[in-house]
Amino acid sequence: MFNSLSDRLTATFKNLRGKGRLTEADVDATVREIRRALLDADVAVPVVREFTSRVRERALGAEVSGALNPSQQIVKIVNEELVEILGGETRRIRLAKNGPTVIMLAGLQGAGKTTLAGKLSKWLKAQGHSPMLVACDLQRPNAVTQLQVVGQRANVPVFAPHPGATSTEPGPACR
Description:
There is one protein chain. The longest helix is centred in the N-terminal third of the chain and has 17 residues, at 24-40. 51% of the residues lie in helices and 2% in strands. It has a two-stranded parallel ribbon. The protein is built from six helices and two strands, in the order αααααβαβ.
């Protein structure tokens, strides 16, 4: 999901390159494309409205920095607004004093949960922890196999029933 959103935003910003000055029409077209990209990524309509209105307001009211061209200025504004809407600050993972710490990933199919699980487990391992991936998606064919491949690449153990399990009954680690 984030990759397609990133690709859409990159294409939108590419249209602004080479412009010495942004007109209101340029800003409106860019905001319209940002709105479409966010809605296609299933971002809530009220969030999209607030986000795009803030970007538009700042883009029209912003004096272009001498160091940045108009395209870079819009990218900077969008980045700052994304950081703000996502909480504005980095939060650290708080691990349980007495393990295990359980981190559950939930989201839409294709959103990148399995990939994130692998990256997170690899990062935790590099921090000196002992992560383990647990397969709880037993409905989707190859979900277990996919998680095992990700775990192997991250060099972390994976608890899962045999590959290709189609049981609707969760395993003991998933109850």
